[in-house]
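Before the break, one more example. Copy the sequence into your notebook; we will annotate it together after we see the structure.
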Amino acid sequence: MLAVGLLVMKKDGMIHPKYRILPFFWGIALLIFWCICTSCGYSFRATGEPISIRLDSLAIPMIESTSSDIGFEASFTKIVRDKFITQGKVPLVSTEQAQAVLSGRVYEIRTVPLSYRVEQQTVGGVVTTFQETTSRRLILKLDIRLTDTDTGKVIWHEKAMEEMAIFEVSLDPLVTQFNQRVALEFIARALADRIFLKTMERF
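Here is what the structure looks like once it is written out:
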């Protein structure tokens, strides 16, 4: 820039007017570049590593649940842990050794009838019409938070993380129970994806 400035000077030592604004534009350019590099206070890292926060270790204790489905809590917790193990770069350790703890509680699981089929039966010469549910919507709500174990500070907290899935209702109760179990696992995987992103790549 100094060399350019010397070349464009007139004989009387004055800088040509059209070059006087060059330092101004360079200053604006540097300011914009600095703002981009420091905006929001976040640093971009490789996929699977946290942004803005540094996590050296993480604990995911058993997720609590109000579900009467035996083993649901263990299955849900395993799905969440597997997500972090396979895609994250933060080691999972015990609660006592972890820098942060990801704890959750499923506080609502409910089903809502979605579709029906009409059936008719004749009893004693009287035709009776009734509806049978053929599918239901399963809705699950989760309270989950990530806490720094050293300071006790909550890094992030979502009180009503919600997901839903649809399952078929069969005349065989065992088949219906299996379908509902599959729907629960689908919801758990969807929630695991959201929890992972919120923890590791959040803004």
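Residues 173-200 form the longest helix (28 residues). The two ends are 39 Å apart (CA to CA). Try to locate both features in your own notes.
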